[in-house]
């Protein structure tokens, strides 16, 4: 807190009592620059409250104030004669002036803002005055407050709005980017993406002419590329977009979060193809019928012996097997015990026939979903081999992730990882925005071949970069947050991927996880689906013919 003259004693008393009342730490000093800041403060944590007797004392104020601090300055008179060069300097600081009109009971707040000069395209200082009318004769609860602003919103008046564009799907896609260098000019026809559309909206809101430049950044490992920041800091670029992050501290300003994106594990899936091996695998309970068949044969032999009948064990096994398969009848039952035993065995045979029929019907019609993994632990315990880019595989410190990363194999970039993911039935790490396009592109019969684990490795919050203390930071933040809150940013994100691509990916993802039917009407089993039975019949006939020929030749040899 700064003291200009001894006449400010009343001001000091009021200010200190309010600070103590609201538990605000404060320092009293006789100079506006008396507090030495040794550490970088968080935005909005420090402010200075100062008192000046007249406007002449403000002449050299820009030489002592700090851009990191918010200043509230109370002056005794209305500073209508502030020089234009002082205004041009103050526009880059967070300063608000207050004065009072005792005759009309008005509290006047004055803030210096920017206004673009149309001819020179230079940002000039401009006064924005808010007048609050206070009726001192009424209680605090009934005070009437009115305010008006004498200036319009920021208008760049078609001057150039210089923006750097980095490449990151689906925020910004740039044609022939491998031939470009940082700060090379870009044409609107050569770029697309959600950030491109957003920056067009912002430029239109600011009434500016959009001037785009390319900035190089490694998409797989973007956290170490910061060469383009010098163009923002020195004023060559007013802002940078293209799926950037808030990772550069306080050397630049930010737009606020306008998009989030997850980094996830993805893995390859595929429905099992039909084969007779899978059919027998489905009928894994057949051994129960074999056990019952053996038990029946033994019991039948015991019962017949108890009844005094001579029965061959060979004939018992043969007739029991034929009855089980429905190809022959059981042996004649002569006693009540034998009849009951045969009835129960026939019921079991009918149940076997029903069980086998249901399994064949299911095998020929219902296609079950492939194995899928809901958690990272399930993926780790699976047979999926992970493929990761070596230079960026340890981008997060997590034990579960590092365990899989340590056992991973190498791939060159996102595209190479996607190829190896499909070809080797493996797993990899992808940005969530890449997944819909990959699912749509690799889908087979409208079914996805790539799924994601529900758990997210990391959630990325995207923010655009703005030049520090730029005169349009406030307007930029305002329009960006309005676009985000209205859902327009998400809509543009989906459109950048492709609405049809997103829809196809959702359908493919749903189809692969459902118990779909291969038939379309009534699930009718066709002869084509039963072809295996005919193959077995043909093989059996061929074997029978071969045995018949062998027996015939053997019989003729005995005749001679």
Automatic annotation (TrEMBL):
<keyword id="KW-0472">Membrane</keyword>
<keyword id="KW-0812">Transmembrane</keyword>
<protein>
    <submittedName>
        <fullName>Jg23243 protein</fullName>
    </submittedName>
</protein>
<keyword id="KW-0325">Glycoprotein</keyword>
<feature type="transmembrane region" description="Helical">
    <location>
        <begin position="343"/>
        <end position="364"/>
    </location>
</feature>
<keyword id="KW-0675">Receptor</keyword>
<keyword id="KW-1133">Transmembrane helix</keyword>
<keyword id="KW-1003">Cell membrane</keyword>
<feature type="transmembrane region" description="Helical">
    <location>
        <begin position="284"/>
        <end position="304"/>
    </location>
</feature>
<dbReference type="GO" id="GO:0005886">
    <property type="term" value="C:plasma membrane"/>
</dbReference>
<feature type="transmembrane region" description="Helical">
    <location>
        <begin position="533"/>
        <end position="555"/>
    </location>
</feature>
<dbReference type="InterPro" id="IPR052192">
    <property type="entry name" value="Insect_Ionotropic_Sensory_Rcpt"/>
</dbReference>
